[in-house]
Prior knowledge:
With about 110 residues, the chain is an alpha+beta fold. The chain has one domain: Orthogonal Bundle (Arc Repressor Mutant, subunit A), CATH 1.10.10. The chain contains four helices and five strands; from the N terminus they run ββαβααββα. The strands form two sheets. Strands 3-5-4 form a three-stranded antiparallel β-sheet. It has a two-stranded antiparallel sheet with strand order 1-2. β4 and β5 form a beta hairpin. The protein starts with 8 loop residues before the first strand and ends with a helix.
Amino acid sequence: xxxxxxxxxxxxxxxxxxxxxxxxxxxxxxxxxxxxxxxxxxxxxxxxxxxxxxxxxxxxxxxxxxxxxxxxxxxxxxxxxxxxxxxxxxxxxxxxxxxxxxxxxx
Length: 106
């Protein structure tokens, strides 16, 4: 039985079936935003990706070696940009798959 997904698309792109958690969804979205050269706003995390606890996920990704830059745009708007693609080595298998599949296109 397939699990129901809350998020099916982000910026017009279908969320791949191998994304199985919010953390993986945010990692995938950061790689997509890097490919598009457009940072993700806090509004996109909440409304498009349906993740209100994105700050904790970003913190965890940074601890895993992901370089994510945060910019205060004013008026309570923040943007997040992946500044350096993480290497797959040393990441969990799920993140290795995301990096290899999406990061290779960056």
